[in-house]
Please model this.
Amino acid sequence: MKIEILEPFGYCAGVDRAISMAYKCKKENPNKKVVVLGMLVHNQDTLNELSKAGIETIYEEKTSLVDLIDKVDRNAIVILTAHGHSRAVEEKLEGLGIPFVDATCPFVTLTENMIKKAVFENRDVLYLGKRNHPEANAALSISSKVHLIEPKNIHLDTKYHRPLVISQTTFSNEEIANAIDVIKNEMSDVQVVESICHASTLRQNALKKLSQDVKLIYVVGGKNSNNTKTLFEIASESHPNAVVHMIQNASEINKKDLYGLDYVVISSGASTPKEITIQVKEKIELLMN
Ligand code: SF4
Model:
């Protein structure tokens, strides 16, 4: 049987940088509590590793980052995740005298800077993103002139002033292109900025280029990872004759799914550690022996 792991795999540069910053902080402050505010990565295995190294994660799905700060030990050092955060988070930490390390991904910062520039120019910003995702929340917190537009559900009933259209970094290129077409059909004076990050685009393209001969695709990543969900949707849409499973790790592979197959493909999200993807391949090999 041919088992192919799609490139790239392993952490993207932004996640890799954020994890390294957390470990570096703990190494330099061995006697201090180091706390990640929110999910550093949407991957339980990585969170367990961080916890073993003494880096705690404080996260509740329905609680804002600002409110989560109430649960942070006043003597801790806080790590802010790659997704970005609102200015209010920094202000509250500063007010409480809690030091923090900003691990926002440079791609996310780039998007935020373009939004800030448009707002400064008194323009509206149409932000194509996912409701309640930390990256979208951070973008919306910049100004009331930033409006969330969900790509699958576009209602443009308000008049916007010289709008800038920009998106969350981990969406599907097609979904955003379709949303932009809808917006352009309704408004003439829009400016569009491409803001899906390189790491997401490469993973999406690898799936789209894949031969139609494949009959089973595993997409490996955390249940709450937006880029992993996007990869799952792209795999399902681009390969309608294949079975596509989204799994978190090798323990979720079912032997009966492999029966009679001679080609299996493994795609993985930007926050999935390399080892987890390799373990998925090894488990398939083991089950096929
Ligand atoms: S998926 Fe893209 S934007 Fe998100 S952390 Fe990775 S490189 Fe940065």
Summary: DSSP finds eleven helices and twelve strands in the chain. Residues 12-15, 82, 105, 107-108, 169-170, 197, 199-200, 227, 270 surround iron/sulfur cluster (CB under 6 Å). The mean pLDDT is 94.
